[in-house]
Design goal:
This protein has about 120 residues and is α+β, with helices and mostly antiparallel strands. The protein has one domain. About 40% of the residues lie in helices and about 15% in strands. The chain is built from five helices and four strands. It has a four-stranded mixed sheet with strand order 3-2-1-4.
């Protein structure tokens, strides 16, 4: 059984669709998981930050590399984010508790300056 098979479909309904409750967001999918796996495989020093589900978005995981480059994708809940982090050997934190690392904000500011 592959990584995606283990992480996919934990919250699906009997009708084949995912029960997302009252959020307006789409569910996570295999493309999201593939992107996260590629990000970890091609960057060093990656850490994960779990962001809670809101009325508008599903639970997300934000991955931040050592140089501050970051990516965010939907995930099927905090438990799945923690399991993915364990499978990929990435430390994971609760974004509401720890906040985000300064290197992420610095990287974003540099990218903004490059576009100016």
């Amino acid at each position: 059984m592959g990584l995606f098979d283990r992480l996919r479909g934990r919250r699906s309904t009997g009708g084949g669709g995912r029960d997302r409750g009252s959020t307006l967001d789409r569910a996570s999918g295999s493309a999201d998981l593939a992107h996260l796996e590629r990000f970890v495989a091609t960057r060093r020093g990656v850490e994960g930050y779990v962001e809670p589900r809101t009325a508008v978005t599903e639970t997300t995981i934000l991955l931040v590399a050592a140089d501050g480059e970051w990516t965010r994708r939907r995930i099927d809940g905090p438990e799945t984010a923690r399991k993915l982090s364990r499978d990929l050997s990435v430390p994971v934190y609760d974004a509401q508790v720890t906040g985000y690392p300064q290197r992420m904000r610095d990287w974003s500011a540099q990218q903004k300056n490059k576009l100016s």
